[in-house]
Amino acid sequence: MKIVRRELEESPARAGRTIVKEGMLTVTLVGVKPGGELRPHKADGPITVQVLDGEIEVQSGGSSRALPTGTLVAFNSGIVHGVTSPRGGIFLLTVVNSPERTS
Q1: C-alpha angle with apex 58: 57 to 60, nearest 5 degrees?
Q2: Number of domains in the chain
Q3: pLDDT, tens digit, for every residue of 36-59?
Q4: How far apart are CA 29 and CA 94, in angstroms?
Q5: CATH code for the domain in which residue 67 is found
Q6: Taking a C-beta distance cutoff of 8 angstroms, is the pair 40, 82 a contact?
Q7: Would the pTM of this model clear 0.70, i.e. be above it?
Q8: Can you tell me the distance from the alpha carbon of 57 to that of 42, in angstroms, rounded to the nearest whole number?
Q9: Which residues pair with 32 in a beta bridge?
Q10: For residues 47 and 26, what is the distance between their CA atoms, to the nearest angstrom?
C-alpha cells in the first residue's frame, strides 16, 4: 500500500498498481484521493472490490453504497459501476477476465 500512497501524492485523483496478471486473473491495488473517482464503467468478467483502507462509495444500478475498511463486494461481468471516495480509500480490485482477453 505504501507504493500506491506515494503515487497518490503525485496524482490528481487516483493511482493503481497491478500486482498480479496471470492467465484470466488480474489483481490491482487502487487508491482514490479524497474527492476522487473512477467514472462509471464495466468489466468484461466478474470482479471483487475489497476495501483495505479508508472508505469508498460504489455506484451501480442507480444506487450508491458506502464501503468501509474490510468490506468485500462482488459484481457479475458487464455490470456498470463507478467509485467515489469523499475521504479517500485504498481497495483491492480482482477481475476474472474472459479467456479471449488473456490471449
Answers
A1: 145
A2: 1
A3: 999 999 988 999 999 999 999 999
A4: 9
A5: 2.60.120.10
A6: yes
A7: yes
A8: 16
A9: 14, 89
A10: 10
